[in-house]
Design brief:
Blueprint: E1 12-16, H1 19-22, H2 35-40, H3 58-72, E2 76-80, H4 83-86, H5 96-111, E3 115-121, H6 127-130, H7 140-155, E4 161-166, H8 168-177, H9 190-212, E5 216-222, E6 226-228, H10 233-255, H11 261-266, H12 275-281, E7 287-291, E8 296-300, E9 309-311, H13 329-342, E10 347-351, H14 370-388, E11 393-399, E12 418-421, E13 426-429, H15 431-441
Parallel strand pairs: 1-2, 1-11, 2-3, 3-4, 4-5, 5-7, 6-8, 7-10, 10-11
Antiparallel strand pairs: 8-9, 12-13
The structure holds beta-D-fucopyranose.
Length: about 450
């Protein structure tokens, strides 16, 4: 029998989480508050008044969670480091107990044969820095590099791959444009400023890394193909949406320039950027992490500032509980697009997964999440198609290891391959966890054609 295309022998199979979404005890052991702690404690901003105060209690249960990862056969674990555990005020004094937590986590993973893949910033900015302007203050590039250096010195000898930022697009769009995410600003002028400072901070951390350690470092972006809805006017809307979400971050990093469409998109809110800052941002990285969840079909919509494009719901297509169209071929398209536009850089799918309606409590030993299993299979086949077309895809991290605090949705959206009963903290692997284990064991062969 002819064998289908397959995954490379050293393909990294992982799962992802982030600090504020799973750790709990956000102020324990000398940690300072983050903007997500403040945001979730502001009435009315998060569904059901949920907060990350307990979350998955991973801060105290991390050893059990490592044992769970081992049971599943994970080769790598992507987590994030809470900046305000390490530097309670965001800069200045280092909190050794905060560093100690990540030190133990990394050692525990390594002892189990799981590669640690930390992200330095997954949205939980120290509140002390928000008071100084947060991502709007140009000094933040230096603050971020100082924090990154503390972590490189503490863990750089043991951590093989680092990511600087998670999804700068969502930080600017959710945090500074429409305000549904922390710090909850609603401004027409701030998003492009925050984006530029995020990129400067990313580059500053990469440069600091070269001086401190010799592993690999990259950034994680979320990408989405933007397909025009049928009418002619929608082609421009799709181009603008693509410039705003996808190319705003990758063009500066790989080409040292912003997409030309952004001047039209932002109008008078588009800042001028000194050329030396764009040179600074164009700092070589070792890999790119791609988070892929869905595509969007867009139409021109003059009321949707600044992009003047809005998403058209695809009737008769399957959607997840977060109303995202399930569109696996978009993952192949996205990976090919990155390679064709930016060159042959090593890629990882750093997040991919689905929230689906599930009960708060599970009776049996397994929760049979058939739709997530189908989602996982179809997206892994799509990743394999990209590999067959020559994309240098090195690994895949499912989002998420555990059901967790899904930002403004609180605990109402379950993304885990392992169910968490938040009343008891009981972990129950879902069918998708068993399926994923089997895929890992066979290095993808069990996916079949
Ligand atoms: C991504 C985030 C991650 C999680 C998933 C569902 O945008 O990086 O923290 O919320 O979406």
């Amino acid at each position: 029998m002819k064998r289908g295309p397959s995954f490379p022998a050293n393909f990294l199979w992982g799962a992802a989480t982030s600090a504020y979404q799973i750790e709990g005890s956000p102020l324990a052991d000398g940690a300072g508050p983050s903007i997500w702690h403040q945001f979730s404690h502001t009435p009315g901003l998060v569904a059901n008044g949920d907060t990350g105060d307990v979350a998955c209690d991973h801060d105290r249960r991390y050893s059990d969670d490592i044992a769970l990862m081992k049971e599943l056969g994970l080769g790598a674990y992507r987590f994030s480091i809470s900046w305000s555990r390490v530097l309670p005020a965001g800069r200045g004094a280092v909190n050794d107990r905060g560093v100690g937590f990540y030190d133990r986590l990394v050692d525990g993973l390594l002892a189990t044969g799981i590669a640690p893949a930390p992200t330095l910033f997954h949205w939980d900015l120290p509140a002390g820095l928000e008071e100084r302007g947060g991502w709007l203050n140009p000094d933040i590039a230096g603050w971020f590099a100082e924090y990154a250096t503390v972590m490189f010195r503490a863990l750089g000898d043991r951590v093989p791959m680092w990511a600087t930022l998670n999804e700068p697009h969502v930080v600017t769009d959710g945090g500074y444009l429409h305000g549904a995410l922390a710090p909850g600003h609603r401004s027409l002028f701030e998003p492009a400023v925050a984006a530029h400072n995020l990129l400067r901070a990313h580059a500053a951390a990469v440069k600091a890394y070269r001086a401190e350690a010799s592993g690999r470092i990259g950034i994680v972006v979320n990408l989405e193909p933007k397909h025009p809805s049928s009418r002619d006017v929608d082609a421009e809307a799709a181009r603008h949406a693509d410039a705003y979400m996808n190319r705003q971050f990758l063009d500066p990093i790989f080409r040292g320039e912003y997409p030309p469409e952004l001047a039209a998109v932002f109008g008078e809110a588009w800042p001028t950027h000194p050329p030396h800052e764009l040179d600074f941002i164009r700092e070589p990285i070792d890999f790119l992490g791609v988070n892929y969840y869905t595509r969007s079909v867009v139409r021109h919509d003059s009321s949707a500032w600044p992009v003047r494009a809005s998403r058209v719901k695809q009737r008769r297509k399957a959607h997840t509980a977060t109303a995202w169209e399930i569109y696996p071929q978009g993952l192949t398209e996205t990976l090919l697009w990155v390679r064709d536009r930016y060159g042959d850089i090593p890629l990882y799918v750093t997040e991919n997964g689905a929230a689906l309606p599930e009960p708060d409590t599970v009776a049996g030993p397994v929760l049979n999440d058939r739709r997530r299993q189908a989602f996982l299979r179809s997206h892994l086949r799509a990743a394999r198609d990209a590999i067959a077309q020559g994309v240098d895809l090195r690994g895949y991290f499912v989002w998420s290891l555990l059901d967790n605090f899904e930002w403004s949705h609180g605990y109402s959206k379950r993304f885990g391959i392992v169910h968490v009963d938040f009343a008891t903290q009981r972990r129950t692997p879902k069918g998708s966890a068993h399926l994923y284990s089997e895929i890992i064991r066979s290095n993808g062969a069990s996916l079949g054609r």
